[in-house]
Every structure is written in C-alpha cells, then in structure tokens.
Amino acid sequence: MRKNIVAGNWKMNNSLQEGLTLAKDLQKALNGKTVNCDVIVCTPFIHLASIAPELTSIGLGAQNCADKVSGAYTGEVSAAMIASTGAKYVIIGHSERRAYYGETNAILKEKVLLALANGLTPIFCIGEVLAERESGSQNAVVEKQIRESLFDLSVADFGKIVLAYEPVWAIGTGKTATSAQAQEMHAFIRKTVEAKYGKQAAEDVSILYGGSCNAGNAAELFANPDVDGGLIGGASLSVEKFLPIVEAF
Ligand code: PGA
Predict the structure, then answer these.
(1) The pTM is what?
(2) Using CA atoms, how far apart are residues 242 and 208, in angstroms rounded to an integer?
(3) pLDDT beyond 90 at 104
(4) Is 96 in the active site?
(5) How does pLDDT run across 64-88, given as a tens digit for each residue?
(6) Residue 94 among the catalytic residues
(7) Which amino acids bring their CB within 6 angstroms of ligand 1?
(8) H helices within the chain, ranges in order?
C-alpha cells in the first residue's frame, strides 16, 4: 500500500539556528498528534546533522546529492555523507536543479542509483515548464524524465522511489495546477509506471504534488485518488503554514 506523504522543501532558506528552531517547533507541534501521512523535512545539507537528533516522528531529507561516489569533487556532498547524518530521504531532480545547475536525466539517473545504494529514499521530481504545458507536450516530457532516469531500475528498486510531480509553472508562483490537472497528470504517471513495472508497482508508488501547495488548496489536491501528498516549498517555512497541510489528510 502506498503512503501519504507531506514533505517540506526548505530550499536555500534558514540559517542553522533558524532551521533548528523550525524543526524543533514542528516536532513539538506534531507530538501527541495523530496524522494520516508521513511528514518529512528536506533541509540544507549543513543543517542535517544538527536537526537529525531533534526529530522523532518527522523524517529528514536532503535536497540534492552528488552524482559521484567520493573524491575530488570540490563542494559536492555524497549520498553516503547524507546517510551518515541520519537523513533518510533525498530530493533528486528538482526543477531548480535541472534549470539552474544543468542536471540532465542522465546525471539524475546516477544520483538515484547512489541514493539507493546508500539506503536513502529518493524523492524524484518531474514536471513540465509552461511552454511545454501550453503546447500540450506535458505528458511526453514527464514520461521521458521518468523513463530516462528511472526505468533501468529493477522493480524492487523502483519500489523504493517516491515521485513528485511539480509543474514548473506552479512552483513559487502562487499559480497552482487545478485539482483536475494534478489528478490527470498523476493518473498518467501511474499508468506509465504500470506499463513498465506492472499494476502492483503502479499502485504502490507514492506520487506527491508540488507547486504552490498551501493550507488553502491542500485538502482538495490530496482528495484526488492519485495524489498521495505534497512537496511543499514556501509553505514549509513556518509551522503555522505547514501544519495545516499535514492535517489536510
Ligand atoms: P512551492 O515550491 O511550494 O514554493 O511552490 C514547491 C517546490 O519547489 O518543491
């Protein structure tokens, strides 16, 4: 059975002290509460080791990892290093990494393999830009991203992946995909997975929606049969904004 997941993506926000406070406050707010989803926060690399001991029910993740095992790659952080902090997740293929740092489907494939090899759960992001949506090629774009980065995995390894559909035109813009647009794409993604890995794998994969998801629209988005939660950027930066999204399930 697939899981409902609400994951915060802090992006490049919060000093270490601010991040620690936010993580502790969020954990405190969740203590003693029953929620119907897994809650994850994906923080900057340097926060991971300090935040890990503060979290009990919240999962911890990074926002990226290197496409190399180790060695002379100045400034990079490996999947093994991330795992050594206690983090269990890593966002891979976020559209900001694809757009600003030239991450291709081939590079992302290497990152996924290294994340899995180190016991991390990849939260693998896919999604089209506005021009692709306007020309009606969004399904082809998303299918290619999945196929080129993930479809060499065994069915067992594919089963360890969480997918996040994030239409690039909806990220940080306040312009959310409609609930119907989200459901339509999520159903297409599930069908794509089914064609490759079969019905069970398609049923089991969690597919999160991301892009201006907030307290006001989360419940409607999550009510769709193929939307299994959210990857939350801006609204993950305060307990007041993030908690109602968690509680939307
Ligand atoms: P947003 O970002 O919620 O600020 O639109 C989502 C994301 O990029 O993961």
Answers:
(1) 0.98
(2) 15
(3) yes
(4) no
(5) 999 999 999 999 999 999 999 999 9
(6) yes
(7) 9, 166, 171-172, 210-213, 231-235
(8) 16-30, 48-51, 79-84, 95-100, 105-117, 130-134, 138-150, 155-158, 179-197, 199-204, 218-222, 239-246
